[in-house]
Amino acid sequence: MRVPIQCSLHTTLKLLRQAEACQDRYRLFRKGAILMGYNGDATPIPLSLALEVNGLYDTLWALRAVLPEEEAQRDRIARLLSCDYAENIAHLWTAPEGVTWKPMDTLSVARQYAYGQATREKLAAASEDAYAAAKAAVRDSADAVRVASGHAARAAAWAASRDYARGSLWDAALAIVRDPARDAARQAWQRTQLMGYLTGEIS
Questions:
Q1: Which among 4, 70, 117, 157 counts the fewest CB atoms within 10 Å?
Q2: Tens-digit pLDDT profile for residues 153-192
Q3: Where are the alpha helices (H) located in 138-183, listed in sequence order?
Q4: How far apart are CA 50 and CA 62, in angstroms?
């Protein structure tokens, strides 16, 4: 296994246990960390290693267990990543009759907020608009197009959630990456995006 490259976010074995990590997945990560020389409960471990050892979904979950001093950076990365994931499935959106909302209406505000260029009030309004669009899209759940549209709208809404980093972080990320049209290529892209943010290649 190669040495983890420079990473902006870190966790510790103690933080993962406090976050109630799945025991089997925790043991896998702990073994990989020890093999790489990260010993001790409080030793900072780069999340890039989690991505290498445990994969995409476990690393998205582990975003809740970063070092306290890195939480603000985590919030920014997580929101931008969610915007990327939501934009990647925005093509699934088909507006119901009478609905003028588009995914980028919300994602633009969410990105602005991540960069400190939008208020929490504006963010909340953008999220509410996306939820309203999702509700309108899925009224007929038997229609596959409407279900896919609702998924795209909810992804945008999660990306703009006001309390994104406090409680709904994992739910938001999981809802976004569970694209009904996902395939191996999409998951590889999602992983590459996450690694890009962790290493600073994407900012």
A1: 117
A2: 888 888 888 765 444 455 555 555 555 555 677 778 889 9
A3: 144-159, 169-177
A4: 8
